[in-house]
Each structure stands twice: as structure tokens, then as C-alpha cells.
Amino acid sequence: MKTRITEMLGITYPVIQGGMQYVSYPELAAAVSNAGGLGTINATLYKNGEEFRQAVRQMKSLTDKPFCINMSLLPDVKVGDEIRYYIHICGMEGVKVIETAGTKPDALTSLIHDAGILHIHKVPAARYALSAEKCGADAVTAVGYECGGHPGMDGIGTMVLVNEAARSLRIPVIAGGGIVDGRGIGAALALGAEAVIMGTRFLASAEAPVSDNHKKWLLDATERSTVLIQKSIHNMMRAADNQAARECLRLEEEGASLKELMPVISGERGRDAYATGWVDSGIFPVGTGCSLIKEIKPVKDIMQELMQELEETVGRLGQISNAV
Ligand SMILES: Cc1cc2nc3c(=O)[nH]c(=O)nc-3n(C[C@H](O)[C@H](O)[C@H](O)COP(=O)(O)O)c2cc1C
Q1: Nearest to residue 199, comparing CAs of 151, 247, 265, 249?
Q2: Mapping DSSP to helix (H, G, I), strand (E, B) and coil, where does residue 122 land?
Q3: Where are the alpha helices (DSSP H) in the chain?
Q4: Predicted model pTM
Q5: Ligand 1 pocket mutation pick from 15, 16, 20, 40 by most atoms within 8 angstroms of CB
Q6: Of 46, 103, 125, 192, which has the most beta carbons under 10 Å away?
């Protein structure tokens, strides 16, 4: 398959694995890159530059295909020496692409380009996509309300967001939020996207480093199994409707501050839950697409299934248009 994104990134299929905190380690990311998509590791998983460099090297030992580094930044945080150092490491190690998320990219784009790296910026609304284009980003990931993780505060669904971004931008758009199968990929391409980003589907893969209980939760989930938390602290997140999320919502209703919420929402608590298998004990970011996932499979098989279903979808649309 050829789109501007597959050409730009040198990948076989227009499928990018979303960076996921405490999930996107080299093993999962390399499986996606080796299957023809673009795997992503999260820079924020590593304590310092040296640990991060080792992870990038591990990634290079697991795949000779392109891969991406996700750098999730807190809103309104200035670009500091640490981020510059991480970008420098990416440049030295020959990383092809960096995806930033969570803050305006202005100062970052030129730093990333100067290191010889492509820059993708993730946004939850078309106006932020336009500002990323103005900053010189090479592409945007436009991720709608259905997504696992942070959908932004405006609550714009993938259908409108991707359509609007693809109409307004000259740079290519990567669609995300609720896309878990070949039908979803077909819909995203029809809206004008040139690739998709998928988190929740790859969370439900054999390679994802979360407990079997978390994977079972994903298989049992329905379209009503997720909730939106952290709205009161302007950092909305879609997560599994479990005990931790309900505790967070209760505290928010009581007007809790970020400091008071931290014991419940801390990423470390979620990470520990992935290891112990106590799904209720930590926040578990998940998108609404979980209701469509029926089987945990190795990434290679997921990718094959996605492409087969995409082909069937395109064929079905072709038949409809022939009949008109
Ligand atoms: C468990 C989990 C953790 C995530 N962590 C991050 C993160 O640290 N940084 C980030 O930019 N996006 C994060 N995301 C969002 C994904 O990168 C991606 O944009 C999103 O999952 C796409 O929507 P989908 O879940 O409907 O496929 C996370 C998503 C999930 C499911």
C-alpha cells in the first residue's frame, strides 16, 4: 500500500502503533515494525538519557525496520536540556521519526529536524493540527474522543476531527481514536487520512506487557466499558471503568486537587497493576474500540487480519459504487 505516510516513513502498511506509557517497550514496538507497520517506544519510560539510549539500541537489535519515539510532554512545560539530550540521542542512533504529544511543538520541530529526524505531532483538535503544520511538523496524528489515553478537552470525535484536519492541512494526517480493525482503517482512509494510529488494538496483543487479566478485561469489554476521568484537572483521560477510575471520579466530584488525586491516578499504580493482574487497582487507559476486539493475537497476525479486512472493506465499497 502506498500513501504519503508509507512513503515518508518507509513502511509497508499505513499502521502506526501508538506510544503507550508502561506498554510501549521495544518488544511490542519491534513486533509492529517487523510486521510492516511503525512501532513506537515511549521516551518517558526511561529514567535518564543513558537508559533511553540502551532502549533505542535494544530496538535496533530487534528490528532493522523504521520505528518511532513518542515524547509526551506536559502542557506548558518549556523545552529543557533533558528533551534536547533525548533528541540528540535519537539523532545519533539514527531514529527515523519522533512523535510529540501534549504541548505545542514550536521549539521542538526545528530541534528534531536539525537532528535529521521527521517530526509528527499528536493533536485532539483540527486547530492544533493547523498550528503544528505552521510550526513545520511533517505530519500530524489526529486522535479523536474515542481514543484510549488523552482525547483533549473539546470532545471531538474521530469522524469530524480527521475529516476536518485532512481538508485543512497540506501535510499528511494520521487518524486515531476507536480504530481497531480493517473497517476502521478503510473509514479513516476514506476521510482523507494517510495512515492510522492504534493503541487499544495493540494493547490486546500477545506481545503487550500487561497481565492476562487486563487482556481478559479487554475481551469482555462492551461499548460502555470506558469512562472519562481527570476532567476536573483539565487533563481528561479515557480509561477502563474499574474501581480506580470510579474512585478518581468520586474524588473529582468532591473537588479534589491534583495532589489529592495523585495516589489514585499515578502512572506507577497503573504499571504495578499490569504486573500483579489486579485490574481494579490502577488506572487503565483504554479506547472505546475495545468492544470490537474479540481475540488476543500476536502482532503479526493482527496486522494480517487488519490488511485482509481492509481489502474486503475496499472491495465492498467498490461493489457499492459499481452498482450506483
Ligand atoms: C494504555 C495506553 C497508554 C497510552 N499512553 C500514551 C502516552 O504515554 N503518550 C501518548 O502520546 N499517547 C498515549 N496513549 C494514546 C495512544 O498513543 C494513541 O494515540 C491512542 O491509543 C489511539 O486511540 P485508540 O486507543 O482508540 O487506538 C495511550 C493509549 C493507551 C491505550
Answers
A1: 151
A2: strand
A3: 4-9, 26-34, 49-62, 81-92, 106-114, 126-135, 158-168, 182-190, 200-203, 212-220, 243-253, 258-265, 267-276, 299-323
A4: 0.96
A5: 20
A6: 125
Q: Residue 164: helix, strand or coil by DSSP?
A: helix
* Consecutive 10-residue averages of pLDDT for the chain (324 residues): 97 98 98 98 94 98 98 66 91 97 86 97 96 96 98 95 98 98 98 98 98 98 97 96 98 96 95 98 98 98 98 94 80
Radius of gyration over every alpha carbon of the chain, rounded to an integer in angstroms: 19
List domains and CATH numbers for the chain.
4-209+297-323 (3.20.20.70), 212-289 (no CATH)
Question: CA-CA distance, 35 to 45, in Å (whole number)?
Answer: 23
| Per-residue cell: 140 | 500530524
Give the C-alpha separation, 197 to 248, whole Å. Answer: 28
Cα 318 to middle of ligand 1, angstroms: 32
